[in-house]
Design goal:
Number of domains of chain B: 4
Radius of gyration of chain A: 25 Å
Radius of gyration of chain B: 31 Å
Number of strands of chain A: 12
Mean pLDDT of chain A: 86
Number of helices of chain B: 21
Strand content of chain A: 15-25%
Helix content of chain A: 40-55%
Largest interface: A-B, 47 and 56 residues
Strand content of chain B: 5-15%
Largest sheet of chain A: 8 strands, mixed
Mean pLDDT of chain B: 82
Largest sheet of chain B: 8 strands, mixed
Oligomer: heterodimer
Strand order of the largest sheet of chain A: 6-7-8-3-9-10-12-11
Distance between the termini of chain A: 28 Å
């Protein structure tokens, strides 16, 4: 599946600040169609926030997110900062020069920079708000193109039927949102299901919001999903509290795949489950992935599970992506000291080995010297990226040789 | 190894509207000092219920059907709530699974950390005073009794000795606590300097100015006669300079060279002070209180020798000799009473061995026995290693339960019969009622009676062993221990826990559990912490009281790998340092490999396999353990995981045979009919599965597991090269 090189999701310089807290700071990566991208890191490093920013649960501060080539989220902090910087810079310059002609020239330059950035902000604002509108326009056009010729050709009863179908599809297309093709599975299967809704309502909610009104279609779809995730039809009328943790998580999975999503953001879907149930859910996700060619952003902290499940893995530390590589490569050649420390803390079911295991402790201040040479995200080997500065880059290259 | 805790035949059920849920069904285990016992099982297997029973915090609808949890000679299932207050949190602490719900969201972290310290500090102060006074009084009494033919003068002399002891002990503690405060500030200042200098050299120091001021303050506080004495002037001068310098380093990116040099100088002085030997304050207390002449000017080690000799010559040797006499006297009386008590207990035992008990006869017998048992209690014993304390309340509780349930059963049974009749009627009419008949909640009378008999026989055994060991007692050592005990209690009186002390201790704990910038974090609310940080706070709270046994109920389940391994390491280190016994409850076998000394695997309220970590991971014998081991992926797993099918059984109607049979692909016919007994595999390894029966067919453990073991062996061999 890795051979398919079409990029489904592209995250560029994503920043998400909450006040002074930089939850996600300049993170870039892309997810190819059909792959499972694992995101690991300790609690509070921003991996969940990244997931939530992608699905637009938060308005991002800066950067952009492209889904299927459409910019679905855009932040404007970087443009605002650019304007402020330019103003400051030019103010100094203008006061420094005495010539009035030079002054007007500089002022004009500044005005241009401000105008450019303001335009960018406008575009970003529009994208942020209206990406769904743009997409639904495309969808409406597609539906139009599909049904128009058919209706013209058909006659009598068939025509009426097609017309009804066309109307239904058109209404759905108008309501389509691009973001609904990204679905989320939440960590806590107890808190993420409304206790007052039956399983049928929970699973069908997305469909109903999207404009599906035909009860029969909804019912059939719900049953199909239930069977897909290993539950039975009879479960549809029950309430969430009647299920065990593993079954509830299955309901969560069914709710997300009923929308036929292209991308699933699984935010620690197995962390709250017992080991034996964990295996059931992972097996289920694996089956679904094979069946539908799903693309999954798998956020988790259990490295054994991430390794088992993902094609590529990104390691995050304090809002920054520090290393990104294919799963096997990452575990074979971990380069960034934080990744090494993370790998050294995986518990293994081997007591004798475990009792000798030394955990590598990561101390950012002691391990890096960034006082002069600032780090950046660089490719050290095809597909293997590390956050490093020049000196470290040299070091990593020599290690890889 | 010394056993800290024994759990015997623990059986616990829950009363629910659908019937009685049998959560724990007769489990047995021991917990040795300084070992980690891990209880592994799925949710609902009864592992948390067990831990809650140990801590006495079972839910209201729990019924303890039988068994005992022996800790410190007491049966925790039978002691009163008041006695439990002294154990819960103080001796046995618990770390809960969910750090979100175990902290109060509207109280600052600092207050939550110090709350218990302050409360307990006050209580302990009061209690220590009481213990100290009564114990000294008892000792005095016993000493007087020991010299039978003593004249009035002799008795007065003994009393005066005890009073003197009290007096100079107080002085000792005053001196020592002043010393401790000063020394601790020296240590803290030195640590702080090390951190700050490191960060300054890396140009990453935050609020350097404030921290330098703080260091100066701490350094000044460390000036004390026995900590920083000779270099006091130099230190004060340096501190003043640092204070001045701190004004200059406010801006980011300024020059730190001068500051670093000063700090390093200060650190050298402090380090020297920290390594300075500690004077014998106990002896000094006596010399200062009763000594005629002033202390000679000597170096500390020489001074210690001098003071020690002075104390021994004037007071201590005499006092120890007298105390020893007192202790021997009290022990002898206790032995005599124990002999009598054995007779009394044996005499009344047949009353409870009858098939049904008679109310008046039983209570009278209990009264008679309780009086005999009470007489055996030796107040001078420091380690209260006897069941005598809980005997009366324990047996009385069981008796009450017995007679109460005889009366109650009639009502319950009538109710049950009525409901059952209605149910049957509905079924006969061809309907399917959607409600179930709740079983009559009948107490198992036989079990209650057995519990009583066991308590009596256990007490007899206990007395007999103690009598047999009578000649092996080392009274000299005991006397020394007694005096240490007195000292410890006296220190409890003087060591006041003020808000400042509690805060310092809390901040130190926060540092210990790995929270950065504890001073800032101290004043924050729980919502400002991430999950891992919150769990650290919870651990810090549990450790604040310096417990004996730590129960960890899935402490790392909600945490990520790095934090998990940090916290496991933390628990491991604490265990080693403090000789802590840990009960570690988890559903994840992977976590316990480097933690556990022994592992008990629980399923449906029973321990199905029990052994050392090596036994369980390399030679697992029960199909459930196999299933657990093969359902988790490791770094080399590529094939499909083997999930355990189905869900655990409904424990309102526990299966007749092996509870795991329905989900077990190795199940045989007998598994559905009869519960397997515990088969012994090696001395340390037991498992309850019919597969171990000599007649059972030979089965291979799952491939995914055997392959992993082979892989692990290969890797270990490679590492060894």
């Amino acid at each position: 599946m890795q051979n398919n090189q079409e990029v489904l999701l592209k995250v560029e310089h994503l920043c998400q600040y909450f006040g002074d807290v930089k939850a996600v700071d300049d993170v870039s990566f892309d997810i190819k169609k059909g792959e499972v991208f694992g995101l690991v890191g300790e609690s509070g490093c921003g991996k969940t926030t990244t997931g939530r920013s992608i699905i637009k649960l938060y308005d991002i501060t800066s950067g952009s997110v492209f889904f299927k080539g459409v910019r679905i989220a855009a932040g404007k902090r970087s443009y605002v900062k650019a304007i402020a910087d330019a103003k400051k810079e030019y103010k100094e310059k203008i006061t420094a020069v005495g010539d009035s002609a030079e002054k007007t020239r500089l002022q004009a330059e500044l005005d241009k920079i401000i105008a450019d950035n303001k335009a960018q902000i406008k575009i970003a604002n529009y994208d942020q708000k209206h990406c769904d509108k743009e997409y639904s326009k495309i969808r409406v056009k597609e539906v139009d193109e599909k049904y128009r010729p058919l209706i013209e050709k058909a006659s009598g009863q068939e025509k009426a039927k097609l017309q009804a179908e066309y109307k239904n599809e058109l209404r759905k297309a108008k309501k389509t949102k691009l973001v609904t093709q990204i679905q989320m599975i939440f960590q806590d299967p107890i808190a993420s299901l409304d206790p007052r809704m039956t399983v049928r309502d929970i699973i069908a909610e997305g469909l109903v919001i999207q404009g599906e009104k035909d009860k029969k279609v909804i019912e059939e779809k719900v049953y199909e999903m239930l069977e897909l995730v290993g539950l039975v039809r009879e479960h549809a009328t029950r309430y969430p509290h009647e299920f065990s943790g593993g079954q509830r998580q299955r309901i969560g999975v069914a709710r997300s795949i009923i929308m036929n999503p292209e991308l699933i953001i699984a935010d620690e879907p197995v962390s709250a489950l017992d080991v034996s149930i964990q295996a059931q859910v992972i097996n289920l996700l694996n089956d679904l992935r094979e069946k539908f060619g799903l693309t999954i952003l798998f956020v988790a902290h259990d490295l054994s599970v991430v390794k088992y499940f993902s094609d590529r893995i990104g390691v995050m530390y304090f809002g920054k992506m520090v290393e990104l590589a294919p799963a096997d490569e990452l575990f074979l050649n971990p380069l960034h000291p934080y990744t090494r420390s993370l790998l050294s803390s995986i518990p293994l079911p081997d007591p004798i080995y475990e009792k000798q295991r030394k955990r590598i402790i990561y101390q950012p201040l002691a391990d890096h010297d960034y006082s002069v040479d600032k780090p950046s995200f660089r490719e050290v080997k095809p597909g293997h990226f590390v956050q490093c500065n020049d000196a470290e880059y040299e070091k990593y290259m020599s290690i890889l040789k | 190894m010394e056993n800290k805790m024994q759990v015997r035949d623990l059986t616990i059920s829950f009363r629910t509207s659908n019937g009685k849920v049998q959560a724990v069904r007769g489990i047995n285990f021991d917990l040795a000092k300084g070992e980690t016992l891990s209880i592994v099982g799925e949710s609902g297997s009864g592992k948390s219920v067990t831990s809650k029973a140990i801590l006495g915090i079972l839910a209201g609808n729990a019924i303890i059907e039988g068994g005992e949890i022996i800790y410190d000679g007491k049966d925790l299932l039978k002691i009163s709530e008041d006695e439990f207050h002294k154990i819960r949190g103080d001796k046995i602490a618990m770390i809960f699974q969910d750090p979100m719900s175990s902290l109060n969201p509207i109280v600052k972290i600092g207050r939550q950390l110090t709350e218990a310290m302050l409360l307990k500090g006050k209580a302990r102060q009061r209690e220590s005073r009481e213990t100290f006074n009564t114990y000294l009084k008892d000792l005095n009494q016993s000493m007087i009794e020991a010299c039978e033919k003593g004249t009035k003068a002799q008795i007065d002399k003994l009393t005066k000795k005890c009073r003197d002891f009290d007096k100079f002990e107080y002085k000792h503690l005053e001196l020592e606590s002043a010393y401790n405060v000063a020394r601790e500030s020296a240590i803290e200042a030195a640590d702080d300097i090390e951190n700050l200098v490191f960060q300054m050299e890396k140009k990453a120091a935050k609020d350097a100015s404030f921290r330098m001021k703080n260091i100066a303050r701490l350094a000044k506080a460390s000036v004390q006669e026995y900590v920083v004495k000779e270099k006091a002037d130099q230190l004060k001068h340096l501190a003043a300079q640092i204070q001045k310098e701190s004004g200059k380093v406010k801006k980011a990116g300024c020059d730190y060279t001068v500051a670093i040099q000063m700090l390093k100088e200060l650190q050298a002085i402090l380090k020297e002070a920290i390594d300075f030997p500690m004077p014998n304050f106990f002896a000094m207390g006596y010399c200062l209180t009763f000594g005629k002449e002033a202390l000679p000017k000597l170096s500390v080690p020489e001074l210690n020798v001098y003071m020690r000799k002075y104390l021994d010559d004037h007071f201590m040797l005499d006092f120890i000799a007298d105390a020893k006499q007192g202790i021997i006297h009290a022990a002898n009386i206790s032995y005599q009473n124990k002999e009598k008590a054995i007779v009394a207990l044996k005499e009344k035992l047949p009353v409870f061995e009858k098939e049904s008990l008679v109310s008046k006869e039983s209570y009278d017998a209990l009264k008679y026995m309780a009086a005999a048992v009470k007489a055996t209690i030796n107040k001078l014993e420091i380690v209260k290693d006897s069941l005598s304390y809980t005997f009366e309340s324990g047996v009385k509780g069981e008796l009450d339960k017995y007679f109460a349930s005889i009366g109650k059963n009639k009502k319950e049974e009538a109710k049950y019969a009525k409901a059952k009749a209605k149910y049957d009627r509905l079924v006969q009419r061809g309907k399917e009622p959607d409600w179930k008949v709740a079983a009559a909640q009948i107490t198992d009378l036989e079990l209650v009676r057995k519990n009583i008999v066991r308590q009596i026989t256990r007490l007899i055994e206990n007395y007999e062993t103690s009598l047999a060991k009578r000649d092996q007692r080392d009274y000299d050592a005991e006397t020394v221990a007694t005096i240490d005990y007195l000292k410890a209690n006296a220190s409890g009186v003087v060591n006041k826990v003020t808000k400042q002390i509690a805060k310092n201790k809390a901040i130190k704990l926060m540092e210990e559990v790995g929270i950065a910038e504890p001073r800032k974090r101290y004043n924050q609310y729980p919502f400002e912490f991430s999950g891992g940080m919150r769990q650290r706070i919870v651990i810090a709270i549990a450790l604040a009281a310096n417990p004996d046994i730590l129960i960890c109920d899935e402490p790392t389940t909600a945490l990520d790998v790095t934090i998990q391994s940090q916290i496991l390491e933390l628990i491991n280190n604490l265990k080693r340092e403090r000789q802590l016994s840990v009960i570690f409850i988890t559903h994840d076998l992977g976590v316990v490999a480097n933690m556990a000394d022994r592992i008990a695997v629980m399923y449906a309220g029973k321990i199905v396999e029990y052994g050392t970590a090596e036994d369980i991971f390399y030679h697992a014998a029960h199909p459930y353990t196999w299933a657990l081991l093969s359902s988790m992926p490791d770094l080399d797993t590529n094939e499909k995981l083997e999930a355990i099918p189905g869900t655990p059984p409904n424990m309102i109607y526990p299966p007749v045979g092996d509870a795991f049979a329905a989900r077990n692909k190795y199940a045989m016919k007998i598994d559905f009919e009869k519960q397997p007994p515990m088969f012994k595999i090696t001395d340390s390894h037991y498992a309850a599965t019919w597969l171990l029966h000599p007649d059972a067919p030979k089965v291979e453990p799952p491939r995914i597991m055997t392959e992993r073991i082979a892989r692990m062996e290969k890797r270990r061999a490679k590492d060894a090269e």
